[in-house]
């Protein structure tokens, strides 16, 4: 199983779990990556989600490429300081600066699907299942969207307001993929965040928020490019 390629740790966002990375995992496997991990974060607070990610990275002896989708970008920004993290890759993701939260960034440019988020009586924030397809993954099939809607993992709404302390993208080489048809994170916010971080490369895909599922080949290619450049 020895490979010159670094390990890749994939961090999911709100309204999904590690399985959202399924297609990207298979694309990376086809590219020769043998050490692939997809962390399952609790979505209970940024601190807890970052700690869960740090613990997974700590189990890996060699270099790691840390990849975050959506809110997972805030997680890797908070958790990416470990010395073996060689690169950060943001997939249609939040990249908050110090003191910024995903919620605060969202307020700057409200995404199209913002009205489809529904809090429940226990403080969890759901994406209306009947609106999941049009909101999250309009470029996937109705069946794929239905499964995503049924298996969605709701965050504690308070997590949206948790600020990043010292973002790892200020210290590590970073790559960014913008989804130009994103209805969950406004493309204007993605463009601003990717420009601000001075990403080594920004790729814009004609994709929904779920680019990791609708265009996994292109997403895996960007991860591969980051891994190659940083190793």
Describe what this molecule looks like in 3D.
Pfam families: Abhydrolase_6. GO terms for molecular function: hydrolase activity. Residues 8-221 form the AB hydrolase-1 domain. This is Alpha/beta hydrolase. Keywords: Hydrolase. With 231 residues, the protein is an alpha/beta fold. It has a single domain, classed as 3-Layer(aba) Sandwich (Rossmann fold), CATH 3.40.50. The chain is 35% helix and 17% strand. The protein is built from 9 helices and 8 strands. The strands form 2 sheets. A 6-stranded parallel beta sheet has the order 2-1-3-4-7-8, with helices on both faces. Strands 5-6 form a two-stranded antiparallel sheet. Helix 2 (46-58) packs across helix 3. The protein is globular and about 45 Å long. The model has no long low-confidence stretch (mean pLDDT 97).
Question: How would you sum up this structure in a few lines?
Answer:
The protein has helices spanning 22-30, 46-58, 72-79, 102-108, 132-136, 142-150, 187-196, 211-214, 216-230; strands spanning 7-11, 36-39, 64-69, 85-91, 117-119, 125-127, 174-179, 201-205. The protein has 231 residues and is an alpha/beta fold.
